[in-house]
């Protein structure tokens, strides 16, 4: 378990897995509503996701980052693509020794035979998404210039130890709820 002190009456433990999409947004909204109603002050959340839609990830980041509940995020397997932005909403963040992260630029597939004006709209949308996600990355993590260069054109993979050096996680530690605590799936 992390070095976080837990108080049974104000701490709660959750898992959140799957694609970052409108369904996940709805589930998280409902869960946080329940947390606030039940007096949860700190929510420990294990995230397992290979990503999804940028707009849904940004919505979740902004919602959780500004929530009255303090979120402590954990990665025990894989947090990738836009799920990394969701993960960064935590005030404290941890990753298991065998966990990995992956960040990359946005991508899209154009319809066959797409006209130049349609392609321009896609490109502008991708550039806007990249600007939004990169500003959040730069706010929370410190990559080396060579890592930013990889991120510019390819997938950047980080181990838990790499993530600690980059300040993506506070420490390499497992999601380990106290014995007897209820773990809820969001």
UniProtKB/TrEMBL annotation:
Gene3D superfamilies, per database record: 2-enoyl-CoA Hydratase, Chain A, domain 1
Stretches that traverse the bilayer: 71-90
Keyword field: Membrane, Transmembrane, Transmembrane helix
SUPFAM superfamilies in alphabetical order: ClpP/crotonase
InterPro entries according to UniProt: ClpP/crotonase-like_dom_sf, ClpP/TepA
Listed name of the protein: Peptidase S14
Organism classification: Bacteria, Pseudomonadati, Pseudomonadota, Betaproteobacteria, Burkholderiales
């Amino acid at each position: 378990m992390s070095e976080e002190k837990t108080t049974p009456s104000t701490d709660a433990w959750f898992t959140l897995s799957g694609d970052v999409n409108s369904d996940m947004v709805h589930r998280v909204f409902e869960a946080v509503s329940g947390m606030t109603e039940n007096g949860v002050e700190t929510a420990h959340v294990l995230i397992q996701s290979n990503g999804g839609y940028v707009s849904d990830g940004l919505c979740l980041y902004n919602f959780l980052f500004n929530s009255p509940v303090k979120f402590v995020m954990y990665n025990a397997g894989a947090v990738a693509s836009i799920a990394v932005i969701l993960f960064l909403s935590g005030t404290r963040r941890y990753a298991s020794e065998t966990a990995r992260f992956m960040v990359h630029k946005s991508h899209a597939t154009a319809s066959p035979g797409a006209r130049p004006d349609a392609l321009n709209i896609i490109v502008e949308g991708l550039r806007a998404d990249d600007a939004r996600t990169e500003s959040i990355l730069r706010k929370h993590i410190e990559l080396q210039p060579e890592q930013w260069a990889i991120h510019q054109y390819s997938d950047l993979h980080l181990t838990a130890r790499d993530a600690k050096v980059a300040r993506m996680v506070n420490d390499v530690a497992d999601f380990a709820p106290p014995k007897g605590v209820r773990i809820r799936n969001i």
